[in-house]
Amino acid sequence: MDILQKVQNYREEQEKLKWEGTLADYLKLLKERPYLAQSAHSRVYNMIKHKGVVEEDDRKIYKFFGDELFGLEEPLERLVEEYFHPAAKRLDVRKRILLLMGPVSGGKSTLVTLLKRGLEKFTHTDEGAVYGIKGCPMHEDPLHLIPPNLRDEFEEEYGIKIEGNLSPLNMMRLEKEYNGKIEDVMVERIFFSEDKRTGIGTFSPSDPKSQDIADLTGSIDFSTIAEYGSESDPRAYRFDGELNKANRGMMEFQEMLKCDEKFLWHLLSLTQEGNFKAGRFALISADELIVAHTNESEYRSFIANKKNEALHSRMIVMPVPYNLKVSQEERIYEKMINESDMKDVHIAPHALKIAAMFTILTRLKESNRGNITLLKKMYLYDGQDVEGFSDTDVRELKKEFPDEGMSGIDPRYVINRISSTIIKKEMTSINALDVLRSLKDGLDDHPSISKEQREEYLNFISVARKEYDELAKKEVQKAFVYSYEESAKTLMDNYLDNVEAFCNKTKIHDPLTGEEMQPDEKLMRSIEEQIGISENAKKAFREEILIRISAYARKGKRFDYQSHERLREAIQKKLFADLKDVVKITTSTKTPDEQQLKKINEVVATLVDEYGYNTTSANELLRYVGSLLNR
Ligand SMILES: Nc1ncnc2c1ncn2[C@@H]1O[C@H](COP(=O)(O)OP(=O)(O)OP(=O)(O)O)[C@@H](O)[C@H]1O
Ligand SMILES: [Mg+2]
């Protein structure tokens, strides 16, 4: 299907979702689907639940956040269970401003955006549909039309509790346009959209001298005063502040704690009483979730100020710490790189993992239990097995510092360092060592790092580097064994021929010249030594192998490379030891001979085909491992 066709289909689908009718029609809808009248908080909670919840060892993982936020399952579970869920049930927390507190670049804005975009989509579904009084700039809840003295009876009949009073504007419209007949008032389905300023608002403070409260609560429309005769006619007012527009949905309050007080007072009554004051009108009811975000130091100085007590008591603070799992941190970087213009640069395997190790180390706190290093803690948090530690230990470690993850290196720093290195050096390929180096160089001009911290971080760089050395060696060994499956078999056959001749006291035939020769003792020992078989034990070992071969033969099975675990290990080690020599030689000044070059090329090919390297990064890896082996 071409794109224009898709556009048309989409338009038609959207068209089908539209609904318009009288209040009487709307009440019929509510009879069947009372949830349509849910509060803003309840809608947000249902939206989160709607995407699915996975229960995993008495934890709840909300899939809603899963595509964008990684490694924050625990704080997010807490956010849902302690704020959204009780707020949806109309408990008191709903009357408080949700204040997300966390370190820089820890995902607070991402979380808020996720909620906003989620709501926009959710209002297009059946479960999340929202209806408002038609033509009302605040898309007021149609149920506000039900007179207060009849609401108890309404609740009895519909099972729906109505909160809030009809706004001055709609009160007037009811009289002038509908002659007071509420059942005739037109209702329409609305769809949240931040761009169209429906149901989603964002307030960000600017200069308090020039910024007007109108940004929050709307203002008089002077051009219409003449028409309506008075400033206190609600029709001469523009209900277009962020609080108005966000009615029924959510409002993001950016930099709230930096904001001038006069803006905050409006929030006091809005959150507590569910209404706010605009112009010269009676209070206006609003139903919306207010989310703000801040960092820890800003928050501390806010609560230290006595003047803020009233506001403080109307907030619920939810921590959004940094992720503490290496594997999840790697995913964060991958996501950020995919969103950037670096996505065509080759990033060698393990480069991001090693960066993530460094970052997580800066975020962890040293345990008071003597037996655990930061590195072990890092592996445990990432769900890896560490000898001597169990799941219970992990749980206890996590409890030790409730504020762990509120400081350390942020993901944006890492991505900025990687991208500036790539750009400065015009690289098309970057590896773990390049990344570590650029992280290290950047520490010098990192604005918020003290001298002691810098020392500590440099140490973490070398810890991460050591982890990389191990990984790099293993990787080359793995690639080598993979490329040399054939050689392993040949070496094995060769060894077995010699062992047979040795045990039977016969000679072996050179396959090329047919010449008779003594068994090759040097070859056999070079293999056996790999697994620590001593000179005295060699005869028993060789005989054991012959017995195994004949046992296989009796059963009609072929003895091969996989048939004897220790022998296989010995062969692999021998091959790798040979490779070490080749790697050492090729990376030292001497020029490698043709055979050595061929070997190296085969390993490079395996690294590229099987392990995600490109030729550049594979050669860099080999050279690096060579230098490690030469030490
Ligand atoms: N846990 C995480 N999972 C996924 N992405 C994350 C996570 N933490 C941070 N990020 C990514 O890091 C970048 C910065 O995050 P974001 O802007 O949401 O942070 P913030 O807490 O609002 O920061 P600031 O305090 O600077 O406003 C974003 O690209 C975001 O996607
Ligand atoms: Mg932010």
TrEMBL record:
PANTHER family: PROTEIN KINASE PRKA, PROTEIN PRKA. This is PrkA family serine protein kinase. Residues 21-371 form the PrkA AAA domain. Gene3D superfamilies: P-loop containing nucleotide triphosphate hydrolases (3.40.50.300). It comes from the Bacteria. It comes from Aquibacillus salsiterrae. Keywords: Kinase, Transferase. One of its GO terms (molecular function) is protein kinase activity. Pfam families: AAA_PrkA, PrkA.
